[in-house]
Amino acid sequence: MKLHIRVLGGGPDIVLLHGWGLHSGVWESVAQRLAADFRVTLIDLPGHGRSGMPDQEYTLPALATAIARVAPPRAVWMGWSLGGMAAMQLAIEHPGRVAGLILVAAMPRFVRAPDWPHAMEAEMLETFTRVLEEDYQGTLQRFLALQTLGGAHGAETLRALRELAARSQPPPPDALRGGLAILRSADLWPRLGEIACPVQLILGKGDRLVPVVAGVAMKERLPSMRLHVIKGAGHAPFLSHPDEFLEVVNEFLHE
Length: 255
Hints:
Layout lengths: L4 E4 L4 E5 L10 H7 L4 E5 L16 H11 L4 E6 L1 H12 L4 E7 L17 H13 L1 H13 L5 H12 L7 H13 L13 E6 L7 H10 L4 E5 L6 H4 L1 H12 L2
Parallel strand pairs: 2-3, 2-4, 4-5, 5-6, 6-7
Antiparallel strand pairs: 1-3
């Protein structure tokens, strides 16, 4: 398997990881602005964008291991949604590789459990998995729409997401199945307290996938974590509110 990477700028390293069904191009505007002060590495997750499928089972540890092979030896990692889970996995399993974490609309578990009531019902992701087999393109479009619900600029953000998604071929069904399986089953909640590096969590107040209460629970378990909630934002705050988003990111990076 070969992962596609792109490097911009120069300076301290920061790695950007995108979410399910998309590609590293979603970070283009953010990456260009960060590249003024940092060396930015954009990575297409396995099976997404221009990256090949993994040679082994599509699991969160395998995803993190594959990404680590092509990443700088030590960096701040910024991960959105599924990419945030991969970044957390890396911070737990390879703490020496992670100087800091910026988690964007990400949490340690994406479905509800007795000890984690702050997520969606498992049936929602199971439905996405089932209809993926029946309507591949439609499932992708519905998931993009779900990410913009609750935001003050939902229509504009959805249009931007669709335009960005169209810049690359959609992931093959196996990659989408694998990503959904991770979102359904991966659980980093019991290990969240093992993360030793500085952490910044950025959430959208209107996010229907990662509610603010999840961030509050994460901060209770990881008290040193910073939590910033962007009012009027949904699941993609870096697209709907880029200036506020980058202000928070740069404050974290320059300390």
